[in-house]
Each structure stands twice: as C-alpha cells, then as structure tokens.
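Entry 0007
Protein: Nuclear receptor-binding factor 2 MIT domain-containing protein
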Amino acid sequence: MIHSVQHQGPPLDQSHVGGSFMVATPCAHVYSRKAEYFSKKGRYDEAMECHRKTVTNLDLALKISPPSTVILESLQIQKKYHLKQVESLKLKKQQHERYMKALEYQRRRNPEYLAQQMEKLDKYNELQIAIYHNLDDTDTLLESLQKSRLGGQPEPAAGKAPVDELISLNHALHLLIHKMAQNFDEYATENENLKEKLRLYEKETENQPAVANSLETGRDALEAIEFHSQELPALAPLELPSFDVSGFENN
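Output (structure tokens):
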C-alpha cells in the first residue's frame, strides 16, 4: 500500500527533485497494487517479488527524496510494511501448502469432506477479494480528494489535513486486515490439525473393544496351552486287591 505524501516544508526545487523521485514513487505504487493482486489470487511467489520491487523503488525514493521529515517518515513506514509483507507471504505460502496437502490426504480418504472444504475455501477467497476491492476503491477516492486539495485549496494552519488523516487511517486499516487474514489462516490450519487428531482418536477408540476382545481370547488360549504343557505329578503305585478264591475252588 503506497500513499502520496504532501510536502509541508519549504518550497522544493522541482527541477532537482521532480525527475527520479516522481518516477520511483509511482513505480512503487504500481508494484504494491500488483503484489496485492497476486496475493489475493494465491500467487505468493509473484506477490513477494512485487513487494521486493516496491522496496527497491522506495529505497530509491528515500535517497533522492526532498528534505522533508514527513516524506522520509512515510517512505520508511511503507518500506517496513512491504518487508513485513514478504515475511508474511512466506508463512502464508507454507500454511497454504500444508493445507493443500491435508486436503489431498482427505480427498483420498473422504471425497465429500474435500468438496466441503473447497467450498469453504472458495467462500473465504471471495470474501477476501471483496474486502480488498473495497479498500482499493477507498484508496482511489482518497487519492482523488488529495489531488483536488492540492489543486487549489490552502494548506491547514496546523496539524494534518482531514484527507491526510483519512489516508493514515486507511493505511492502518490495511495493516489490520492483512494481520487478520494471516491470523485466520493460522487458526484455520490449527483447527484442521485438531480435527484430524480428533478423527484419529475416535477411530482408535472405536477399535479398542475389538482389540480388547481379541487380547482376552488370546490370553485364554495361552493359559490353556500353558496348562496342558505342564508336567503331570507322579501317581502313586497301583496296588492290586487280593481276593480269597479258595471258596470258589472247593465248589
């Protein structure tokens, strides 16, 4: 997000400043818009490259900027913002890759689950695009108001003009929305991981009774085998009974 900055110091030597400075800042603005576009489309590598090019142009603008504290501070803030965006997009890309791997895993296991998740992802992307579109419209309106003010209206006696304050607030809104989107992605990834762990736990719990019955049956069989394999104790000698057969012989 690049802001136009109003010079509030002494009159500038436009012949010295106007050339490269007036080229560097619009280039940074163009790359900033491209970065937002690629980020919305999930083309993270291209978005990061555009943020880096924005930083390069801002560095050039810092070197040749007019001697104005307001301009320098604004350029530094914008540079810091775009550097943070590069790091944020790196994390977002990693989260997206993990999320897509999880979806692919679920697709193999449950196609209906994948369809539901893809529908949620599409709705979230549509919401993000709508939010960024409204922000872009606001940026365009504020820039038009600022150009109109620069065309003929006098500078405020003290403090910032209302348009400048709106631009600052809009810039802060951009930062908050990017942070919110990043947190949402982190929470969504964590939520999916917890759901997957819960599904695995439920599956293990369902299998526990069958496993317990199987173990009990196996334990009984082992006890029976162990009982039969034990040596039987020695039996006492068998004593034959004695019969008096003399009576039978006389008969």
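Curator remark: The CA atoms of residues 145 and 151 lie 10 Å apart. The mean pLDDT is 68.
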